[in-house]
Amino acid sequence: MALLEVNHLDVRFALRQGEVRALRDVNFTLERGERLGIVGESGAGKSVAAFSLLNLIAKPGFIAGGEIRFDGQALTKMSERGLRKIRGNRISMIFQDPMMTLNPVLSIGEQMIECLKAHRRISRREARSIALDRLKQVQIPSPEKRLDQYPHELSGGMRQRIIIAIALLLDPDIIVADEPTTALDVTIQAEIMALLLSLCETHNVALILITHDLGVVSQVTQRMLVMYAGRVIEQGPTREIINDPQHPYTQGLLNALPQMATPGEKLNQIRGSMPSLNALPSGCAFHPRCDFTHRSDGTARPACVEQVPEFVISGQCRVACHMVAEMLEDRRMKEEAQ
């Protein structure tokens, strides 16, 4: 049994103009100690998927269907009191902006001690000792001094290290990191990701990394999900997807990396933009932007426009694409004919 199982997850937002489906039939698993990346453009549903795990979706959002099981427990059926015992204790989150997470009027030490005492029956001295040990683990210089400082006295990179230290305070089974290096410069980003990877491996902590940076995903994760318009469209081993992407959207994301462009030429990009969730195209949501939807005679593939693609197995990956399904079927028929 996997540590985390997400089955047919459906998340909606009740708006005046009607319900909007932010996530549609999302399925994935996470093993203990495994590192999973979730990638896609802004609006793809990455953060909603992460917040859904602990029902942190603010109203008018709500989980409309599906199941989330953690270590055999159904989180979607758990009471708020039961979820509070899981949040921060067994599943920790690292958010994009440390200044939105840290309390500006409390010292770093006070915040870490409060977190520990909320979940464990220990003295302030014991809590402070654990907090100091975690700051040392994330390689904070002068950790004793940092415990008595306030968030505004620290640099962005140091604040993010402290957020990682807080996430590790209670020895969680899973860390969910939502764009953890967005606000940092490239050098600090690399340091933070290397630190997070090392700590997860040392403590055997599973990691869910939410990001739009395929370069980071390729270096840190073992498996990945590619999301588009609230749906997973490709998933499988990270190395296989990076080396041989099947879905046209995944191919577009990889081709848009700066290193894929010819020096001196314009960067590659996927034409168009992510559709609004309350006005999704029919059939495959990606078809208006897809170079493979239109055939050589200029007409569109009827299946792409009319039918939502089912998942097919290609190698070790699952892909939701009519074109890939057709290619696999053609290959199967040729093999049978030989």
From TrEMBL:
GO MF annotation, one: ATP binding
Keywords (A to Z) from UniProt: ATP-binding, Cell membrane, Membrane, Nucleotide-binding, Transport
Membrane topology according to the record: Peripheral membrane protein
Span of the signal peptide: none
Keyword Cell wall biogenesis/degradation: no
Top-level lineage group: Bacteria
Cell location: Cell inner membrane
Enzyme class: translocase
Protein's UniProt keywords contain Ribosomal protein: no
Name by which UniProt lists this protein: ABC-type dipeptide transporter
Lineage of the organism: Bacteria, Pseudomonadati, Pseudomonadota, Gammaproteobacteria, Oceanospirillales
